[in-house]
């Protein structure tokens, strides 16, 4: 029966490609791109055509105007299909397109097709309910992801001064990231017959995205914790809500990765590092919300971060007077002097320190992983390997 289905699917795909090349061309059609989309979203459950997917990504990177024909062709294929195989491949392809990091892709408001009520029409519901469920969940995440990235891009390009405080804007953005993580944690295989290569490939893509999103959330929470002693009552309420959600999601992440690891998802072998939120910070926010006056005190950020036990040791690279470099591994606080002012900071970044006759100049480089521990950049997501 499966062999018959594969044969029928192969015939459908070949016929679709033939129709593409004999159809009338217009400004919305690109035969080569359409053919690559059909191959990347074929009916073959056992084949993941990575080469065709890369052709689609290359078109978008090389020629942003290709987005129009791509969206038209992919939407048409997704709206017509009743096959869970074609649907999941289309979502994986769309996920990879989002990670092409081209401005035209970031301007997409929502997904150009709707799979929120998808149902496979080639098998009995008792056999396909799990596949239908994961497709609907995957679609919901990608649709929301497009909306969030567009909103953040518009905020970055908007020079208008916001009435809301910078901390409130930061908290609102963090709440959106947490809602996105919630959607990601809903994506999972729920039936025993879903242990197939295609579903495992899709879950690998989901796991990579979870690493990215959880890393962004951890970085943003670390920034917020530095400001909790100078927040208003309204800001304290928002921050408390964010911290409570972070603690809840930390437990959900552990359960999710344990499930995926047991199910056999390759990228779920290691749980992403999640910042532990100090209880005294939560209590401090609760006191501010209740209107309890907080006595002024000197904040020992070093002690706070040590209690969090999440900051890793980093390398401090120094250049001596002979022009040679030496690397010192340290978990101590570092004091930097610049323009006769002292700047304090935990040494969680790689710093190039060079002395000259005029004094000390400092050049900060991006964070680097130490001891194979990934360091997340909240403003740039790594490329997603979609297939």
TrEMBL record:
Keyword Metal-binding carried by entry: no
Main subcellular location of this protein, as a coarse class: cytoplasm
GO CC list: clathrin-coated pit; clathrin-coated vesicle; Golgi apparatus
GO biological process, alphabetically ordered: clathrin coat assembly; clathrin-dependent endocytosis; vesicle budding from membrane
UniProt KW Protein transport keyword: no
Alphabetical list of PROSITE patterns matching this protein: ENTH
CDD domains in the record: ANTH_N_AP180_plant
One Pfam short name: ANTH
Record's subcellular location: Cytoplasmic vesicle, Clathrin-coated vesicle; Golgi apparatus; Membrane, Clathrin-coated pit
Keywords: Coated pit, Cytoplasmic vesicle, Endocytosis, Golgi apparatus, Membrane
Domain ENTH: from-to ranges: 25-156
A GO molecular-function descriptor: 1-phosphatidylinositol binding
UniProt cross-references to InterPro entries, sorted A to Z: ANTH_dom, ANTH_dom_sf, ANTH_N_plant, AP180-like, ENTH, ENTH_VHS
PANTHER family attached to this UniProt entry: CLATHRIN ASSEMBLY PROTEIN (PTHR22951), OS08G0467300 PROTEIN (PTHR22951:SF19)
Protein name per UniProt: ENTH domain-containing protein
Organism: Gossypium anomalum
């Amino acid at each position: 029966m499966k062999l018959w289905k594969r044969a029928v699917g192969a015939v459908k795909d070949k016929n679709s490609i033939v129709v593409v090349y004999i159809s009338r061309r217009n400004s919305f059609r690109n035969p080569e791109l359409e053919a690559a989309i059909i191959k990347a979203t074929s009916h073959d459950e056992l084949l993941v055509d990575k080469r065709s997917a890369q052709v689609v990504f290359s078109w978008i990177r090389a020629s942003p105007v290709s987005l129009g024909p791509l969206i038209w062709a992919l939407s048409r294929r997704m709206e017509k299909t009743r096959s869970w195989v074609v649907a999941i491949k289309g979502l994986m392809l769309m996920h990879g397109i989002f990670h092409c990091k081209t401005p035209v892709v970031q301007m997409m408001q929502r997904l150009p097709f709707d799979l929120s009520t998808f149902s496979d029409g080639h098998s009995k519901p008792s056999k396909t309910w799990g596949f239908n469920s994961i497709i609907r969940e995957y679609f919901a995440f990608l649709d929301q992801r497009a909306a969030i990235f567009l909103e953040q891009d518009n905020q970055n390009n908007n020079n208008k001064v916001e009435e809301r405080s910078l901390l409130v804007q930061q908290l609102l953005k963090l709440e959106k990231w947490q809602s996105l993580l919630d959607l990601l944690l809903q994506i999972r295989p729920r039936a025993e017959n879903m242990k197939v290569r295609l579903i495992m490939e899709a879950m690998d893509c989901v796991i990579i995205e979870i690493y990215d999103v959880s890393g962004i959330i951890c970085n943003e929470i670390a920034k917020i914790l530095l400001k909790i002693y100078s927040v208003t009552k309204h800001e304290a309420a928002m921050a408390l809500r964010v911290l409570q959600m972070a603690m809840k999601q930390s437990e959900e992440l552990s359960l999710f990765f344990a499930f995926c690891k047991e199910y056999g998802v390759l990228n779920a072998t290691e749980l992403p590092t999640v910042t532990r939120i100090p209880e005294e910070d939560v209590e401090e926010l609760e006191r501010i919300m209740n209107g309890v006056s907080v006595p002024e005190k000197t904040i020992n950020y070093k002690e706070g971060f040590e209690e969090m036990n999440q900051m890793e040791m980093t390398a401090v690279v120094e250049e001596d007077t002979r022009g040679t470099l030496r690397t010192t591994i340290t978990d101590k606080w570092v004091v930097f002097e610049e323009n006769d002012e002292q700047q304090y900071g935990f040494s969680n970044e790689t710093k190039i320190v060079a002395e000259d006759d005029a004094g000390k100049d400092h050049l900060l480089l991006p964070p680097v992983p130490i001891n194979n521990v990934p360091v997340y950049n909240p403003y740039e997501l790594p490329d997603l390997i979609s297939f």
